[in-house]
């Protein structure tokens, strides 16, 4: 429950680096997921041409020019890097700079992970002073682990893959997919919420927003990953009750994130 005298600064100042031409929706979904899971203030770094898309879709968010390095970097409680950013040199330089300069909490998702994996840049993760959460799907996990294109991570190998990713990167791992595996270096958890309707474009962008939001609000990294994954899956289950699994889209997850959080809080009372 929120205190009566609280203000937005009490619930995390989050920066999301997301979106690119043709992928503006990734930034929108990530920001919506963050706000619906309780973030106090969300700023989104994206190409200036996409500002109108974000301002119409998420009027609560503040736009930052991707072309300019963010000011007051250490003022953010957490940074999410990756949903839909592409893999151009500008994004690569920005990722490298943030990993060097920022010392709090960084969640790497999607193209943020691909930028690390594509150039053998895992050493950047060991050199950063920031704490890390990584949210790969199996394909991104394969790249980070250096597996050959034809190799697969089998269902019975998912815990071992999460362990190996943690050892390789030093981050808390959220290995997405059916029965998402979360590993923080000490505890494995297999998420029990969610349904096949969530296998839809943008679902991972919402998850990144939820976990990054909870982490920025003060949850420990492992706790944010476990709770965020549970909320995300429960939002999918609630949405499927209304729309059916076949009609579920990622935008529904944002709305039902709020209902999922309400349900969890009521269960805890």
Question: Your description of this structure?
Answer:
This protein is α/β, with parallel strands linked by helices and 269 residues long. It has a single domain, classed as Ribokinase (UDP-N-acetylmuramoyl-L-alanine:D-glutamate ligase, 3-Layer(aba) Sandwich). It is built from 10 helices and 9 strands. Helix 9 crosses helix 10. The mean pLDDT is 96.
- Sheet with most strands: 9 strands, mixed
Strand order of the largest sheet: 3-2-1-4-5-6-7-8-9
Q: On the 0-100 scale, what is the average pLDDT?
A: 96
Helix content: 40-55%
CATH architecture: 3-Layer(aba) Sandwich
Spans of 5+ residues with little confidence (pLDDT < 50)? Answer: none
What is the number of strand segments?
A: 9
Q: Tell me the strand percentage band.
A: 5-15%
Coarse shape: globular
Number of domains: 1
CATH topology term: UDP-N-acetylmuramoyl-L-alanine:D-glutamate ligase
Radius of gyration of CA atoms, rounded to a whole number: 17 Å
Measure the end-to-end span: 10 Å
CATH homologous superfamily caption: Ribokinase
State the name of the first-level CATH class: Alpha Beta
What is the count of helical runs? 10
- Helix-and-strand structural type: alpha/beta
Reading the helices and strands in chain order gives EHEHEEHEHHEHHEEEHHH
